[in-house]
Amino acid sequence: MRLWSIVGLYIGGIIGAGFASGQELVVFFTNYGVAGMVGIVVAILLLSLGTMLVLDFCARHSVSSYATLLGKLDPKRTHILDVLYSVFLLIGNSVMFAGIGAIGDTPWSSFHLRVITGLLVLLVLRRGVEGVARASAWLAPVLVFILCALSIDRLRNLGIRIPTHGSWQAMEAATLYSSYNLGFSMTVLASIQTSLKSQRERLAFVITANIILGISMVLLFFALGTLTPEELSSPFPLGHLFNSRGVLAIGFYRLMLWGAMYSTAMAHSLALVSRMTEMQRFSWTKSSILVVLLSLALSYAGFATLIRVAYPILGLAGLWILANLVRERMA
Fold first, then answer.
1. Spatial distance between the Cα atoms of 151 and 308, rounded to a whole number of angstroms
2. For the chain, what is the radius of gyration of the CA atoms?
3. Among 100-104, 144-148, 225-229, 240-244, which stretch is predicted with the lowest mean pLDDT?
4. CA pair distance 202, 207, nearest whole angstrom
5. CA-CA-CA-CA torsion for 250, 253, 258, 259, nearest 10 degrees?
6. Containing domain of residue 97, as a range?
7. CB-side exposure of 331: number of CA atoms within 13 Å?
8. What is the model's pLDDT at position 308?
9. CATH code at 86?
10. d(Cα 288, Cα 293) in Å, to the nearest integer?
11. 62 dihedral zone (left: phi>0; alpha: psi -120 to 50; beta)
């Protein structure tokens, strides 16, 4: 598997609804002013550290799934951690399908968007890890390019505005941001680590993936800084960068949002299906169908409700994972 495909899979797993809408960046960084810029650097450093520790741990212990990783970290609580983490992944997947449904203007169009996306996820899952990685290899770069190009165009016209205010609570927010993203990406990292054969390849992956992510975050941070407080408080802040460009631009933004959520749904589904087939109770095809159907059903619990319940808890879980990886490495 090529390095670029693995990088695309990792980035595609992070650039979900919250990132592509701008909501995550506003909540975790933009709201903290000038300290938010430092927060981005802290978040990328923590993500880099976490991804490197996960990959090294998986390589040293021959880990190929998140269940085995959790078991190696805490053998006494393996089963309960496995179940809890699988539930969080399923909820995270449902968040993506709920967000995709929210793009629709009517209940009927919302239903169709969910079902069509579910079928597309199944289509890619049929080819296993390789199929998901290949899809992410072209989808993730397109999403990153669009977001960066939009930000650069905005800044070229309006200029960079350095915030004058700041709150060092940004460090706390940056830590939470990196930890819950590590919690989600850990599943992908455990699944693909066998494709990175050496320490050098793992380091190349970590540096490439997180630099691309960091540059995107910095550009979007400054682009969001050109919006008014009212625009920043809306559910889709980045959408305001398209509003002045007409109906076609808004439609294009919705398509980009869909692509971001689809790429994350592929990554989460891959991790869940890999875990289910590892248990040898279901075939790959049956596991894929079951994961997609459950995710679609749970998506009707509501986009905001799912985010409010799952993400803060997963952030704490990510901190626990990072702390244990550091402790294990230093032992």
1. 28
2. 19
3. 240-244
4. 9
5. 150
6. 3-330
7. 8
8. 59
9. 1.20.1740.10
10. 9
11. left
Q: Which of 187, 264, 189, 259 has the alpha carbon at shortest distance from 6?
A: 189
Exposure string over 260-279, b if 16+ CB within 10 A, otherwise e: bbbbbbbbbbbbbbbbbbee
- Residue 204 is predicted with a pLDDT of 92
- Do 125 and 273 touch, CB atoms closer than 8 A? yes
3-state secondary structure of 233: coil
Q: Which residue has the higher pLDDT, 52 or 92?
A: 52
Question: In Å, what is the CA distance from 161 to each residue of 20, 33, 34, 155, 164?
Answer: 21, 11, 10, 9, 9
Contact of 113 with 101, CB cutoff 8 Å: yes
| In contact, 220 and 151? CB cutoff 8 Å | yes
Q: Which two tokens stand for residue 225?
A: 């800084």
Backbone φ and ψ for 227, nearest 5 degrees, come out as -90, 160
Distance (Å) of CA 276 to CA 86, 279, 301: 10, 5, 24
The total number of residues written for the chain in this structure = 331
DSSP per position, 162-224: --S-B-TTHHHHHHHHHHHHHHHHHHHHHHHGGG--SHHHHHHHHHHHHHHHHHHHHHHHHHH
How many domains does the chain fold into?
1
pLDDT per residue over 161-176, tens digit each?
887 777 888 898 898 8
Task: Return the DSSP state at 126.
Answer: T
User: What are phi and psi for residue 166, nearest 5 degrees?
Assistant: -175, 150
What the block records as the tokens of 120 is 């597309």
Angstrom distance (rounded) from CA 44 to CA 79 = 31
The model's pLDDT over 4-29, given as tens digits with 9 standing for 90+, comes to: 778 887 887 787 767 878 888 888 89
Query: Residue 6's pLDDT is what?
Result: 81
pLDDT reported for residue 12: 77
